[in-house]
Amino acid sequence: MTNWIKPVTAATLMWIVQGVQAQQIFLCVDATGHKEYTDTRKGSHCRVLDVPGGQITAPKARAEGAQRPRAVAAPVTAPSDFPRVDSSEQRARDADRRQILQEELNGELAKLADMKREYNNGEPERRGDERNYAKYQERVAHLKDSISRSEKNVEALRREISNIR
Fold first, then answer.
1. Range with the poorest average pLDDT among 29-33, 69-73, 119-123
2. C or N: which end of the chain has fewer Cβ atoms within 10 Å?
3. Closest Cα partner for 46 from 37, 55, 57, 54?
4. What is the Cα–Cα distance from 118 to 123, expressed in whole angstroms?
């Protein structure tokens, strides 16, 4: 059996003892107050947990395929004094938002194209200040990271634009 380090809660203790039967569980507290439940004594700072009946039994397993019950969120309603916007105003705001996001997307696409052109499929031209090969490799790695980040930005902007009504 392995050792566990978890926050001290009843749920954690139940998780720890799941599947453990007729075995001692130790609570070890270090000098900083950090608590650790374990099945092996790790020194004088550990004490045996007093388990009623001397045994810990595992909780019953759920039937195969059974799922944990999910909490149902209460429907959200706006307060009666919540400010409302008429549909034409909302459409205008959405159009402005779409235009701003589209401009950001176009700028990001242009930046991405420039970086890909400079990256040159992983073999960018060496610059005069890169006499040391490590500096060149560092710039290549930085370009690759920047391209990846820019591609993620493009994807996020496209997703945001598609979410506008």
1. 69-73
2. C
3. 37
4. 9
With tokens 């195969």, the residue in question is 64
Would you state the pLDDT for residue 6?
A: 47
3-state class (DSSP) for residue 46: strand
CB atoms within 10 A of CB 161: 14
Q: Which two tokens stand for residue 71?
A: 């909490």
Pair 91, 85: CB distance under 8 Å: no
CB within 8 Å of 165: residues ≥ 6 apart:
94
Order of strands, sheet of 35-38, starting from the edge strand that comes earlier in the sequence: 35-38, 26-29, 46-48
Integer CA distances (angstroms), 43 to 20, 30, 113, in order: 22, 10, 61
Burial bucket for residue 56 (CB in 10 Å: 0-12, 13-18, 19+) = buried
